[in-house]
Design goal:
The complex is a heterodimer of chains A (511) and B (320). Chain A is of the alpha/beta class and 511 residues long. Chain A has two domains: 7-96 and 165-244, P-loop containing nucleotide triphosphate hydrolases (Rossmann fold, 3-Layer(aba) Sandwich); 261-497, Rossmann fold, CATH 3.40.50. Chain A has 19 helices and 20 strands. Chain A has helices spanning 47-54, 77-83, 100-111, 125-133, 149-162, 179-194, 206-212, 236-244, 297-305, 327-332, 342-346, 353-358, 362-365, 373-386, 403-415, 434-449, 461-467, 489-497, 503-510, and strands spanning 7-18, 21-32, 36-40, 62-67, 70-72, 85-88, 167-171, 198-202, 215-220, 223-230, 261-270, 274-282, 286-290, 312-317, 320-321, 335-338, 422-426, 453-458, 470-475, 478-484. Chain A is globular. Chain B is an all-alpha fold. Chain B has helices spanning 9-24, 31-56, 64-82, 84-107, 113-132, 147-150, 158-176, 178-188, 190-195, 200-226, 237-248, 259-278, 283-319; strands at residues 137-138, 152-153, 156-157, 228-229. In chain B, α2 runs parallel beside α7 (158-176) and α11 packs parallel to α13 (283-319). The longest helix of chain B has 37 residues, at 283-319. Chain B is globular, with a radius of gyration of 20 Å. The chains are: A alpha/beta (511), B mainly alpha (320). At the A-B interface, α10, α11 and α14 of A face α8, α9 and α13 of B.
């Protein structure tokens, strides 16, 4: 066994910019051998960026990564694997049509630049040894497509261990596993620990973190805010605190009183994302749906906005059933939707600001069959000023704007939806600067004051508290509790951290 | 000024090339040569406008060469029975059906345009060969279909008029109606277009139907000119059309360009070919130089795009 407690991997001061957005500014990570190290953070905290740097898929703008004291620089994924840093992703990198043996050999082939002949069973010996060591039984002739997701994951781990990896990176390894499979994985992780491997464990499930991780590192807004803190000394609330950041209940903005009923949701469910959601929203009311990633908050927002299909339940808008229809139908009924991922789902790259802003308003702004550029400008002009879009030139391609200003345009597009009754905003201000945040918040409140029912789904508690008349907190796919405006942030955090998942109890029974 | 859009870069290339030809190429500036140029460019312009619209919504259509062949075969087969005008109608219906089929498979069933239209190209070519028994068939003596191709109006051949009308109509459609604006949005980001409430599959289908209409017109002109039904009527047509779009500045990634770009691409291509012919370059050398022109224009646009991107991000940094 290697000595524990030597520093295996150290990342110092990593930073990375993508265009106008800073994905990472000064993030640190220190991993010791024989340690299971949780890496946590909300969406946009910089987790993915950091992982990509560790596995060599991205190069940091500044900062350094040391493996056993040696600096790694300018590497490819292949170099990282050769150095002993092996990622195991949610989507497996196996070849389903080939056998286990062929899959294991595949990387031997890939590691030499010239093709060579197999040497038969001898090749497999180190793999079978490794599998036996960590307690896994392998049938080399079995095709991989017949394996479950859990078995595939274990196979990838075996492959890494046999190739003498030093560090395994498990990215949400339990996301596709059931409870028994997860427990089996945890047993394997225990054995890996004993072998002195370092393990980075990425998961949103707090129960798992306290069960199998020794220390936790939390990223927030591109910085390390909790550096290798021992899980034994932490409560769930501490971790959530670190992820969410200081929450001040700023409710100084006056909200208008809500009017009559507008949206009635009952028994809504969407696959494994969330179940049994019932909610009613009145005209002019802003309802916040808050929850960490995986809680179902964003998915609920997507279903209410028509971007994702409900598997069960009803959505009534002004008494009219709209569940199960297309996003286009939702829009025609007056439902605006600001998607959570601006770059992938929001903006139209290469097109002008005016075109981006007016995209949902054509029915209202065309004269007869014709639609002029002037109509696009006229429709969005006032809102460009109101939301202080900089630079305000509607002819500029949207790519020339900062993230915050791009987000303003996506908001404007939805404010222009004809006859809007309901506005669903997902993560309204993710990754935008404070000025854009203020402008966007004012625009949302302004829309509500004109009688639009608003739903804000966000993992940013502070934002939801500042905007909403009431806050529905989601946890593990269910509405956990509803809080009124001005509720104590501490209470919300406590509610977020409460455990109602059965896995913990099961695990203790198992142990 | 808002209404003053920037002119496409290919316009300046065209003008420069035109002036260079006037100066350097013998017999270029004659009326007869311009009539020839117009006749040659008209067919390509018709189909390139359609191809451009399809590329705008991230599609492609390789089947247009087989589509015009189908037009000629169907028309020549029907003409003795139905008369000339109804036979042209049958040809048009056949081409529109092919376009609809391509469009439905690509838009609603979300199959890759590359493979669907490649399959259509090969399959329809086979169908045409079967219909005529493997050899081109001539229209029977006494049936004259040449009116469309050889008539003129104010000294300009009818095909050139057709191309001009197609250009004007499609330009207005793409730049000044919601259909055109939505096609741009779909090409730029299909997922965002769907979330913005745009009927994405319907618009893609409409793009293929519009393309098929223009291809049908091109098929009518070609059939009229040749007076025969030929499975191998114009196999290079899709590749020339895609090349014209690329030269004119419509990237295959979609979301950018207009019918003006397509037509400029056709003009540059036609001028270039015309100059090579007037210089008496051998045919194989013409092909080589044409290949160079296509790749070189894509390369130039790629480099210009990267330069613009740098300039854009520099501007962004000064703003924040």
């Amino acid at each position: 066994m290697e000595t524990k407690d030597t520093v295996l991997l150290e990342a110092r001061n990593l930073s990375k910019r993508f265009g106008a957005t800073c994905a990472l500014l000064s993030a640190d990570l220190e991993l010791r051998s024989g340690q299971v190290h949780a890496l946590m953070g909300e969406n946009g905290a910089g987790k993915t960026t950091m992982v990509k740097m560790l596995v060599g898929a991205l190069q940091p703008d500044s900062g350094e990564i040391l493996l056993e004291g040696k600096r790694l620089s300018n590497r490819s994924v292949r170099d990282a694997v050769a150095a002993g840093i092996v990622p195991v992703y949610q989507h497996s990198t196996l070849f389903p049509e080939l056998s286990i043996a062929e899959n294991l050999r595949a990387f031997d082939v890939a590691s030499t630049s010239l093709p060579r002949l197999h040497r038969g069973a001898a090749d497999l010996a180190p793999y079978l040894d490794a599998a036996a060591r960590i307690g896994i039984d392998l049938d080399p002739a079995k095709p991989v497509r017949m394996l479950s997701m859990a078995e595939r994951q274990l196979l990838e781990i075996v492959r890494a261990v046999a190739r003498n990896c030093k560090l395994l990176l498990l990215d949400e390894p339990t996301a596709a596993l059931n409870v028994q499979e997860a427990l089996r994985l945890f047993d394997v992780i225990e054995r890996l620990k004993e072998e002195g491997k370092g393990i980075i464990f990425i998961s949103h499930k707090l129960n798992e973190i306290s069960e199998i991780c020794d220390v936790v590192t939390v990223l927030r807004d591109g910085r390390t805010v909790m550096n290798a803190a021992a899980t034994a000394t932490l409560t769930h609330r501490d971790i959530i605190h670190a992820m969410v950041g200081p929450v001040s209940a700023r409710t100084d903005t006056a909200l208008h009183d809500a009017g009559g009923p507008c949206l009635e949701v009952s028994g809504l469910a969407c696959g494994g994302a969330f179940q049994d959601m019932s909610l009613s929203v009145r005209r002019g009311e802003i309802v916040g749906i808050a929850g960490l990633i995986g809680s179902g908050a964003l998915e609920a927002g997507e279903v209410l906005g028509g971007a994702r299909e409900a598997t069960q339940g009803t959505i009534k808008l002004d008494g009219k059933e709209i569940a199960g229809r297309s996003r286009r139908y939702f829009k025609q009924q007056g439902v605006g939707l600001v998607p959570a991922d601006r770059t992938a789902d929001g903006i139209f790259p290469g097109l002008s600001c005016a075109a981006n802003a007016a995209a949902s308003a054509y029915d209202a702004i065309q004269t007869g069959a014709f639609l002029s550029r002037q109509a696009e400008y006229d429709a969005s002009n006032m809102l460009f000023t109101a939301l202080r879009v900089r630079p305000g030139d509607p002819d500029l391609p949207i790519g020339a704007l900062s993230g915050g200003n791009q987000q303003k345009l996506v908001i404007i597009r939805n404010l222009l939806v004809p006859d809007m009754k309901l506005l669903v905003v997902l993560e309204p201000t993710r990754g935008v600067d404070v000025h854009a945040r203020d402008a966007i918040h004012s625009a949302i409140i302004d829309a509500a004051s004109k009688g639009v029912a608003v739903i804000v789904a966000s993992s940013d508690l502070e934002e939801v508290m500042a905007l909403a008349h009431r806050i529905c907190l989601m946890r593990n796919g269910r509405l956990a509790r509803t809080f009124p405006r001005g509720a104590d942030p501490a209470e919300l955090l406590a509610c977020m951290g409460e455990s109602d998942s059965p896995s913990r109890e099961l695990h203790h029974a198992h142990a | 000024m808002h209404m003053l859009k920037r002119w496409p870069a290919s316009l300046w290339v065209f003008i420069a090339l035109f002036i260079a030809c006037l100066i350097a190429v013998p017999r270029f500036g004659t009326v007869q040569n311009f009539v020839n140029l117009g006749r040659m460019a008209a067919i390509l312009a018709l189909v390139s406008i359609g191809q451009g619209v399809v590329i705008m919504v991230r599609g492609l259509d390789f089947s247009i060469g087989s589509a015009v062949a189908l037009f000629s075969v169907a028309t020549v087969l029907c003409a003795p029975v139905l008369g000339v005008a109804p036979a042209f109608g049958i040809g048009a219906v056949a081409v529109l059906c092919l376009g609809m089929l391509n469009g439905v498979l690509i838009s609603y069933l979300k199959l890759p345009a590359f493979l669907v239209t490649l399959g259509a190209m090969i399959g329809v070519h086979g169908l045409c060969s079967v219909l005529v028994g493997g050899v081109p068939i001539e229209a029977p003596v006494g049936i004259d279909m040449s009116g469309l191709a050889h008539a003129g109006w104010f000294g300009i051949p009818v095909p050139a008029w057709l191309a001009a009308v197609a250009f004007g109509g499609s330009y207005v459609l793409m730049e000044y109606t919601s259909f055109g604006r939505e096609a741009h949005l779909i090409g730029s980001n299909p997922r965002a277009a769907e979330l913005a409430g745009i009927p994405v599959p319907l618009r893609i289908l409409q793009a293929y139907v519009l393309n098929a209409m223009l291809v049908a017109v091109a098929g009518a002109v070609l059939t009229s000119r040749l007076g025969s039904g030929q499975p191998n009527l114009y196999p290079e047509l899709p590749f020339e059309a895609i090349a014209a779009c690329a030269i004119g500045g419509i990237p295959l990634t979609g979301g950018k360009g207009s019918p003006l770009h397509a037509v400029l691409g056709v003009c540059i291509l036609a001028l270039f070919m015309n100059a090579l012919v007037l210089f008496n370059f051998p045919t194989y050398l013409q092909s080589m130089l044409l290949g160079v022109l296509i790749v070189e224009s894509v390369l130039v646009q790629h480099l210009a795009g990267r330069f613009a991107w740098r300039a854009g991000s520099a501007q962004m940094q000064t703003n924040t």
